[in-house]
Amino acid sequence: MRLVIIGAGFAGMYAALSAARLRDIQGVSPEQLEIALVAPQPTLVVRPRLYEPHPETLTAPLLELFHAIDVVYVQGSAEAVDASARTVGIAAADGVRKPLSYDRLVLASGSRLFRPNIPGLAAHGFSVDSLDDAVALDRHLHGLAGRPATDGRNTVVVVGGGFTGIEAATEMPARLRAILGNDAGTRVIIVDRNNVIAPDMGLDSRPVIEDALRQLGVETRLGVGVASLDESGITLSSGELIGTETVIWAAGIRAAPLTEQISAERDNSGRLLVDRELRVPAVQGVFATGDAARAACDDDGNYALMSCQHATRMGAFAGHNAAAELLDLPTRPYHQKAYVTCLDLGEAGALFTRGWERKVEMVGEVAKKTKHEINTVWIYPPKAERAAALASADPERVTDL
Ligand SMILES: Cc1cc2nc3c(=O)[nH]c(=O)nc-3n(C[C@H](O)[C@H](O)[C@H](O)COP(=O)(O)OP(=O)(O)OC[C@H]3O[C@@H](n4cnc5c(N)ncnc54)[C@H](O)[C@@H]3O)c2cc1C
Fold first, then answer.
1. Which whole number is the average pLDDT over 77-98?
2. How far is the CA of 111 from the centre of ligand 1 (A)?
């Protein structure tokens, strides 16, 4: 029997760990139940940190961990899923294509930034969404030091005043000072269509965020969209032209395109609708998890967000349930009652909220310490030590905050 997991992000990694844990507990050998994980690289890209400097350091190796828990790593990108033949078509880096058959499939292919068709965006927009994008932005920022010291060089525009946009913008004053010096007269401006900053963060959080932006001198242009951009500036829907050589797009995430390979219902973000066990109901043998799935996480009407916090736990449930079906064991409904957010606010500290109503629990330096702990410890893979790694993947315990 073979369980195939697509994706080596937070969800895929925990799906593999959790499936391997159940196999181990049941005394089933890797020959009886093969667990294979398909991804372009055997590394975890620590996406929640990609707004930070030195993005090239923000990955964690997974190969040793996979060896320790007897998970077979398959290098490549899944291009097609044939759910009736139960095969995945995989393209390796050298272009060679091969099919891989499965008895159960866990789709954990994550998400990516959605770039609308705005003139100039594809050619001139930067982002902090993928490792390559974050590295390209970092190189560009360092390259600014060699350019004439114009207002455009010294101005960074971040489009999107949600979670990612705020983290990218509040980190930027310090990043620019480190590259351009203290006297460069840098500006950072957040542009958002909404009339308020961080519309999803709730009323309790907004004053904390607005205070941080004021403290850091980050400006906002709210209630306006983007008409176009080029290498020297951005034009807003209000007609305002801002001279800038750096536009960072942080407005809108969609599930990775692989979800389109499954003939089943998807939401507006391209996520596959799944049942409480994280199965794709219309397609036998297929589970979806993490940013690739839309799942209820409690009985109160809350749904998992595209977040690392949800992806790790959803991954653990999906891996467990896919292996459980193959081993004729009961499956477990995914549930995740606790929900917190920890928003980095650069040199203004951080903001920690609890619950879906996002009640502020910590701000400033105390919250910053927690953010640091989350970003440098909690979201990293477990060590490549079999017993401890498998124990860390109990679906009931993963990220139970
Ligand atoms: C700048 C930034 C800040 C963030 N901050 C936070 C935060 O503070 N807190 C939080 O909870 N979340 C945060 N997030 C969101 C979080 O990173 C995502 O929700 C999380 O990465 C989702 O995990 P995942 O495993 O579902 O997908 P991903 O991490 O996207 O991993 C997907 C995996 O699938 C692989 N893959 C994709 N397509 C294929 C294919 N066709 N074949 C094979 N492999 C494939 C990819 O290579 C990757 O290994 C942030 C994201 C960004 C970009």
1. 95
2. 6
Task: Indicate whether 119 and 240 sit together in one domain.
Answer: yes
Confidence of residue 400 (pLDDT cuts 50, 70, 90): low
Give domain status of residue 44, yes or no. yes
Look at residue 29 in the predicted model and tell me its pLDDT: 98
* Number of domains, the chain: 2
Q: What is the arithmetic mean of pLDDT over 219-245?
A: 98
In contact, 188 and 218? CB cutoff 8 Å = yes
Write the pLDDT tens digit of every residue in 92-132.
988 899 999 999 999 999 999 999 999 999 999 999 999 99
Mutate to test the pocket of ligand 1, among 308, 312, 341, 368 (most ligand atoms within 8 A of CB): 308
Cβ of 162 below 6 Å from ligand 1: no
Q: Which domain holds residue 173?
A: 115-247
In a domain, 353, yes or no: no
Q: Which atom of ligand 1 is nearest to the CA of 307?
A: 19
How far, in Å, are 14, 25, 293, 347, 375 from residue 21 at the CA level?
A: 10, 6, 22, 41, 25
pLDDT per position as a tens digit, 12-63: 999 999 999 999 999 999 999 999 999 999 999 999 999 999 999 999 999 9
Question: Which CATH number belongs to the domain containing residue 62 in this structure?
Answer: 3.50.50.60
Does any domain span residue 24? yes
* β-pair type (125-126, 253-255): unpaired
Q: Which of 276, 316, 342, 333 is nearest to 397 (CA)?
A: 316
- Is pLDDT at 401 greater than 70 in this prediction? no
Q: How many CA atoms lie within 13 A of 149 on its CB side?
A: 9
Residue 104: what are its φ and ψ, rounded to 5°? -135, 145
Residue type, 316: A
Alpha helices in 144-183 (DSSP H): 151-154, 163-180
Q: Ligand 1 centre from 338 Cα, in Å?
A: 20
Is 57 found in the same domain as 169? no
